[in-house]
Write a structure and sequence with these properties.
206 residues, two-stranded parallel sheet, globular
């Protein structure tokens, strides 16, 4: 009688010998708006930039509802392709951190006022051009600079809804008495920024 055929003792993994697929990192479709939410010394902020790299938002978002409101505005004004992509904003995050800790005085990022009203598109560039680091202006003075001397209240409203806080420094504008008035991030944030720029050491920085 013939002996039974011996069973193969081959290693099953030999079946995959020579199979070496290239390892590829995950890829993501490009976004029209990239954003990140940062915890900063002056509060929680949403930073966003468009596909060209220009900043379109630097907004205080203390809670999820505020964050959702900014994202909805970006979706309507720029594109519904809004993706959370922190790495796309690394340079801005570093600049903001340096600024808020007194290591930087001027941002080197482009801005796009796509979320601004027509009036804000007049007020905010003039503010950035005329009120520099460590300086202050009043609402009336800024109104005069845009040749609307009776529009101090409207200027205040435009600054209060600034879509690019800190990057476009609405915190440098105060009441005619010198008193600190409304700021999107709260008066404590405004005081922090003004103290920082005046050379004083804000709480928590040193």
């Amino acid at each position: 009688m013939n002996a039974p055929a011996s069973q193969s003792s081959a290693d099953p993994t030999d079946l995959f010998a020579g199979f070496d697929p290239a390892t590829r990192p995950p890829t993501f479709e490009p976004s029209d708006v990239s954003y990140v939410v940062e915890d900063t010394p002056i509060g929680r902020m949403l930073l966003a930039r468009n596909a060209s790299g220009a900043m379109v938002a630097s907004s205080f978002t203390p809670d999820t509802a505020a964050e959702d409101a900014v994202l909805e505005r970006l979706s309507r004004a720029v594109s519904p392709r809004v993706l959370r992509m922190p790495s796309a904003l690394d340079d801005v995050r570093h600049q903001l951190d340096d600024y808020l800790h007194g290591r930087l005085r001027e941002f080197s990022v482009r801005t796009d006022l796509v979320l601004a009203t027509d009036f804000q598109r007049v007020v905010l560039p003039r503010l950035a051009q005329s009120v520099h680091y460590g300086e202050r202006s009043t609402y009336g003075q800024l109104a005069t600079r845009i040749e609307r001397p009776s529009a101090a209240r409207a200027v205040g409203a435009a600054l209060g809804a600034n879509p690019l806080c800190v990057l476009l420094p609405c915190h440098r504008v105060v009441a005619s008495s010198g008193a600190l008035t409304g700021y999107a991030g709260g008066l404590a944030a405004k005081e922090y920024l003004l103290d920082l720029e005046s050379g004083a050491t804000p709480p928590g920085v040193g």
